[in-house]
Amino acid sequence: MHRRAFVAGGMTVLGTLTECRVARAQSSRKVYRIGMLSVGSSTADMAGPQPRNPTTSSLLIGLRELGYVYGEHFVTEGRSPEGQVERFPSLVAELVRLQVDVIVAAGPALAALKQGASTIPVVMAGAEDPVGLGVVKSLARPGTNFTGLSNQAVELTVKRLELLKEIVPGGAPVAVLWDPGSLLSWKASNTAAQQRGWKLLSFEVRDIGEIEAAIRAATEARAGALLPVGTRISARTTRR
Asked: What pTM was estimated for this model as a whole?
């Protein structure tokens, strides 16, 4: 996620906290707790006022530029599943027990937040399809405890598939690498392929350590192109 997006996210977070302050009529001396759920980082890298995780750092820079001081106005409670997305429900429960005032989360954690944090404001830092996930009623009027940013991943994934098919030789299949957090994008691309008579090869990647094996399997299957879906997968395959 680019820094501009996280600065915008920071403004949303602080706007949400301001609403909490007014609604609860709490003292201005309260230090607000921002829960954060990451995907491709570690919990240790998200900790403190100078986190090593670049996305967490970008958010704190944005908040600082808005005049908010770590430790004086807010603190963060960062959590990461350490590559195991099935841990998100337990991490959500942990943040709920800590009574954080707001939670900032990327797409893969949103389903767990919908189930386990219905009373805490949630700021989405790039959701795949918030309407399709059922976390908001519409982009114009969320109508739930969720707000934030949508990265339109579903629509863009289908468009990327169409562009790939223009350069894939003959009828060679396209290998799609996707993780559980990008299930909607995979389903959309598969539906588009079926409607057009294209062949796709599905490779579900539940852990970043499985990416290399998935690429090797796609090569052995004689895939004509590779379509990585999901932030973690796209970042890793781009660096290869």
From this structure: 0.69
Which residue segments constitute the domains of the chain, with CATH numbers given?
3-150 (3.40.50.2300), 153-239 (3.40.50.2300)
Which residue numbers in the chain have pLDDT < 70?
A: 1-28, 231-240
SS (H, E, C) the chain: CCHHHHHHHHHHHHHHHHHHHHHHCCCCCCCEEEEEECCCCCCHHHCCCCCCCHHHHHHHHHHHHCCCCECCCEEEEEECCCCCHHHHHHHHHHHHHCCCCEEEECHHHHHHHHHHCCCCCEEEEEECCHHHHCCCCCCCCCCCCEEEEECCHHHHHHHHHHHHHHHCCCCCCEEEEECHHHHHHHHHHHHHHHHHCCCEEEEECCCHHHHHHHHHHHHHCCCCEEEECCHHHHHHHHHC
Q: What is the pLDDT of residues 153-185, one digit of tens each?
A: 788 889 999 999 888 877 889 999 998 778 888
